[in-house]
Amino acid sequence: MNSSALIHAVIDGVLTGSVYALMATGLTLIFGVMDIINVAQGIFVILGAYLSYALSVHWGIDPFVGLVITIPTLFLVGIVVERAFIGRLKGPEKTAMSILVTYAISLVIEGSLNMIFSVNYVQISASYVNKTFRIFGVYFAYIYVYGFIMAAILLVALYVMLYRTRFGASIRASLADQTAAALVGIDVKRVSTICFGIGIAVTAAGGMVFGATNAFNASTSYDLISRLLVIIVLGGMGSLGGALLAGILMVTLEDIVGVVWSPVWSIIAFYIVLVIVLSIRPQGLFGKQSARVA
Amino acid sequence: MLKKKVNLLWLVALAIALFVPNIITNPAYRQIAVITLIFTACATSWNMFSGYSGYVALGSAAFYGTGAYTMALLSLHLHVHAGGDMFWLVPVGGLAAMLMAIPIGLIALRVRRHTFVVITIAIFFVFQLAAINFGFTGGTGGLTLPYIPWMIQSYHVPFYYVALTMLVFAIALSASVRRSRFGLQLLAIRDDEDRALGLGVKVFPVKLTGFAMSAFTIGMGGALYAMMQGQIYPQFVFDPIFDISIALMAFFGGFGTLLGPILGGLVLESSQQYLTVTYSNGSLYLILFGVLFLLVVLFMPQGIVVFIRDWWAKRQDRLAAANEAVGAQGGNS
């Protein structure tokens, strides 16, 4: 192990971590506003990846340009899924039921993807996927940098929307307290639907970068969703800043452990950090202390 | 009167179950029957904690796998005679899973429901990765258990009866917990944990005990499965589908009811096994399973048992109302 490998791991971790942070932000937004744990987030990422893959293979559309098509597509998918299934859930077991419903949705998508694309691993290719450049004596692939820039732009856009617009204010109000938000005249149901759409739409972008940097098939979603869940729990469920920070921290840590010890232990380190943090701070890094659970 | 009827129904069900190996003689279908019983026992046991307390655990495959590896490692290293003697290792597998559940529960049960779900998933993945990466577990190649020299035709029959015993044990345990003070405490936690705490329920020890108890049967299930298959792989005994399957069974039948997971397990697992054996197309199966599940959750969110019970109660009410109306009319005329 040398220091340049370590630098490489840290920079790589931050670059990749930002993409995970983007996907996790969508997940935590959905949980915060709707009390829905969307375990289909992993398969939506893969769906986004396959969409970009299909566009580039069949029509030769560059994956980054293809986002213009895939992001709105997944936004619409999210809206439809929310209207058809998620919005119908109510009652005290709503959150537990949401896990099962979204899991069922993910099974249907997984089965369909397997039928359409087969279970063979694929990877999105573009001219810059394997091209590298040198900095600090370390080589980096362009795709990581582009992915980072894209994730950063989308995250900034998301934050501007949330913190600088009227609609963003109503989302944040629903995050803080649904009943109170409804009382001041916010259409919480409409906010929920759009939030779900946004939460799913970000997976199109995340999935594209994921698909360009990893070989994937539909069952890769299990690995993805477990990581995303760990990230949002670590950051504190429903906390947007927490998801952002935890995403970058965890992936960086994973990369460092991979370099210092072995890649085999890197993913275990990921889970062990979670267990340690939660035994000290059960609500996660930025989570609200839950006073009562109804 | 009603109680007697119910007890009689259980006995009839048991009597039918005892004769299943005589009716089903094809070894492939007998294997389906055994696996169905194992899963049903696991679902019943899962429901005994998660259903009663409301803490949905999605990492139970950690216990299933622990049981399976306990069976494999002990039978290999203790040089147990390959055959019926190995059945004694089944409860040992259960105990190992229960011991594993205590430290897991100490961490996972500190948090409230939503986070608990996610932590159990995370812990499950730690177990799977450990099984893949440690040396003594045989890595991805898994472990081969001592070969049991039984005839193929009747190979599954002893497993069937052991699995049936396990299921009866799981049901009896779940039923007695349900009627006990301990069970009431679990239900109180499900309804309102803070109030239960305020009323003097020692919430944490109750949850931990329930969690460990439910791990016992699940561990036994894993051990029995490993013994029957003769070969285990980390990705099959530590399987995320297992986690979700037993939860689905409980929700499908009726979350938190005694009968629900039994019904869910018998219907879902047997149909799943049958479909995989008959059609090798796993993708189609995934879609069917997903759609079926969506329908059940959306139209019978309480599960089939509660749905039927409500429907029956409504029907009785309607009948009573109709009788009353007829009676009133009769009185008038």
Q: What is the mean predicted local confidence, pLDDT of chain B?
A: 85
For the largest beta-sheet of chain B, the strand count, sense and barrel status come to: 2 strands, antiparallel
Tally of separate domains of chain B: 1
Order of helices and strands of chain A: HHHHEEHHHHHHH
The main pleated sheet of chain A reads as: 2 strands, antiparallel
- Total helical elements of chain A: 11
Low-pLDDT residue intervals, each spanning 5 or more residues of chain B? none
Query: What is the strand content of chain B?
Result: under 5%
Mean of all residue-level pLDDT scores of chain A: 84
Q: What's the helix-strand series of chain B? A: HHHHHEHHHHEHHHHH
> How many beta strands in the DSSP annotation of chain A?
2
| Whole-number total of structural domains of chain A | 1
pLDDT < 50 stretches of chain A: none
Q: Going across the major beta sheet of chain B, what is the strand order?
A: 1-2
- Rg calculated over all Cα atoms of chain A: 19 Å
- Annotation field: number of helices of chain B: 14
Give the strand tally of chain B: 2
Describe this structure in words.
- The complex is a heterodimer of chains A (294) and B (333).
- Chain A is an all-alpha fold and 294 residues long.
- Chain A has a single domain (3-280), classed as Orthogonal Bundle (ABC transporter involved in vitamin B12 uptake, BtuC).
- Chain A has 11 helices and 2 strands, in the order ααααββααααααα.
- Chain A has a two-stranded antiparallel sheet.
- In chain A, a hairpin with a 2-residue loop joins strand 1 and strand 2 (138-141).
- Chain A starts with a helix and ends in a 14-residue tail after the last helix.
- The model of chain A has no long low-confidence stretch (mean pLDDT 84).
- Chain B has 333 residues and is mostly helical.
- Chain B has one domain (24-302): ABC transporter involved in vitamin B12 uptake, BtuC.
- Chain B contains 14 helices and 2 strands.
- Chain B has helices at residues 2-23, 27-53, 61-77, 89-108, 113-133, 156-179, 181-191, 193-198, 203-229, 234-237, 240-253, 259-278, 282-299, 304-332, and strands at 143-144, 231-232.
- Chain B has a two-stranded antiparallel sheet with strand order 1-2.
- The two termini of chain B are 36 Å apart.
- The mean pLDDT of chain B is 85.
- Chains A and B meet through helix 4, helix 9 and helix 11 of A and helix 5, helix 11 and helix 13 of B.
